[in-house]
Amino acid sequence: MEGTLSEDDGLIRESNMDLNDNTADPHMSLALDALGVELNNPITSQLLQLDNSDIMEPIIGMEFESDEAAKEYYIAYANRVGFGVRMNKSRRSRKDDTVIMRRFVCTREGFHSKRVIYDDGKKKRKRGTTREGCMAMIEVIRKDHGKWVVTKLVTEHTHMVALPGKVRPRDDKAIILGNVGFLHGESSGGFNNLKNFNRGIRVNPFGEGGEAQGLLEYLKRMQAENPAFFYAIQVDNNNCMTNVFWADAKARMGYQYFGDAVTFDTTYKKTKYMMPFATFRGVNHHLQSVNFGCALLMDETKGSYVWLLETWVAAMGGQHPVSLVTDRDKAMEGAIMRVFPNTRHRFCKWHILSRCKQKLSDVYLKHVTLKRDLKECINESETIEDFETRWEYILDKYNLWDNSWLQSLYDIRRQWATVYQKDTFFPELTVSRRSESLNKFFKKHFNAKTSLLVFISLFDQHLASQYEKEAQADFTTVYSKPLLRTPSPMEKQAAGVYTKAVFDKFQEEFVESLGYYVDKIEDDPIIKYSVSKEEDNHRTYIVCFNESDKKANCSCCKFEYCGILCRHILRVFFIVGVRILPEEYILKRWTRNATSNVVLEERVIDPGLSFQEQLIAWYNDLCLDAVKYGMEGAISSDIYKIAKVALQKAFAEVVAAKNMQRKGQQNMQRFARLQKMQYKMPLPKLQPKKTPGRVAPQDEVNRSKRSTKDDSVDASDSHLNGDTH
Length: 725
Description:
The chain is an alpha+beta fold. The chain is 41% helix and 18% strand. The chain is globular.
């Protein structure tokens, strides 16, 4: 296996991912005015602490514990020598789809495609290139014992490398440009000059022709038109754009109503050499697809996914989803465990089935019934035992016990098989129709012939058509009366509460419930019923009913999974005399009033956040409420005037409170300055006090003087009279 791979190995995948000291998960820095929060890159810091003598020269046969360890070593070695590194190629195994080969090359490897673009007959100026055909590289392959071994190595460069003392490591930064519109960078220049930032954008990952610059202009224009528009750009130390995320006001508001279950899809790519276009989607109260944001990713590494998920949840107000559906991907799985530790993560069944078609193509050609059997096993298994039986039947029938792909799927069955996920909310009432519609759009427009900006414009039109369909569904729900099929007050109640699309699903369950019969099997405080269909006695469901609070649960778990009561519970309700749906079984997200909320919710802010992060959280919260206020107030002319007057009054109160707080702060500062000045002023000098023994009072001095004078007068008189002693 030295330098080559077996026939079971997958195809080579090329990448232009620049790895120059970008080994850690990119961190996100949020900014508000002049405030910023940055987190350090721990892995990069560890590499920077290595002494040059600690990094040995690479040789053929070197072993590493993982491909990540090999990458970190080669990047550290490149820092010592003085060149940049990027990942060039990788290869996956056909057996289990895991990566078995990585190739890291010098950033000057290869050549840029020479292309001259003309505009109005004038030739544009040629731009400089960093590619000059350097052959320096290292290739590692995973051996059978699990170690990664260097099998190919070229250490000579075709260009001058930087001196070790001049090599400056690179650290990824992020720019959050949402409601704040502030570019955050390093304090030494950073992105205060937007012109320099624009000039430093790397164009190639986004296609040729300056698409990155056009994308930035598009995002700035969208935010200028709507302050609630959120976008974030991640750049590296060279101001090169790496990952981009954006979400409009409708997406952010829709997440507040329908963000409990989210699908994160990264399967859309222009070509295998281009970055994936990622979407966050959900299901609204009309069973329609609703967008929660979009992203363009430079690569599909854990670091990129961590940055994207953290940025996305910040844009959505910090609210984590209950469930998250993604493709099967190791890097993505690790990022989700880090960012959403309490979210139920599941792999997409459609993606699993499509991969089965690729991995089992030979068997599919021989046995046309295999696809049907797999679908029935995945979608129609009622219990875990039923799933296990069907799975073993497929392995026996088609002799697939030794198939490594199916074995790998079975090992992770708890993350994709429906029967293992029935206790968590995953609404899949019409998932296939929604997926097919979106996939059709991407196949038609997301290709190498369509420029990035043209595609984004078409995608905006697609979203606008979705919003129009939602408005049409709202109109139909309000002004059309659904046809009732029974005289039951419960059906009538559901028709007035649910939207038309959801009511159709409920009505199907309600009518089907009439064909089931019920047997009581236990009569404790919680009564157990056996519910089954007359013509299908072997399939029985257990419904537990608490008569005191009228609560019930079924072994099929349809309500927990979809949020709509199953036919088995509805049948038990009819038997025990429950004629109206209890409130706890009516999810607001399925009702006509799903998007109406009279009271603005006060979202809980994590007390552990710094003051700068709290400012951003408060700002995002108010912006979401402002969008909600605008949607409620822009219905008619009269309501608009009322909303405008109320907003002006509230704004005046906020300004008055702000001025009052500012005046109070100024008074406090003035008082503090006065106190400080008082301590600094010199005290007046006091005259020293004289004690009575040493200093006689002034009157006594005068009295002594007068007494002396009198004595002298008396003496003179005595002398004149002849008196002698």
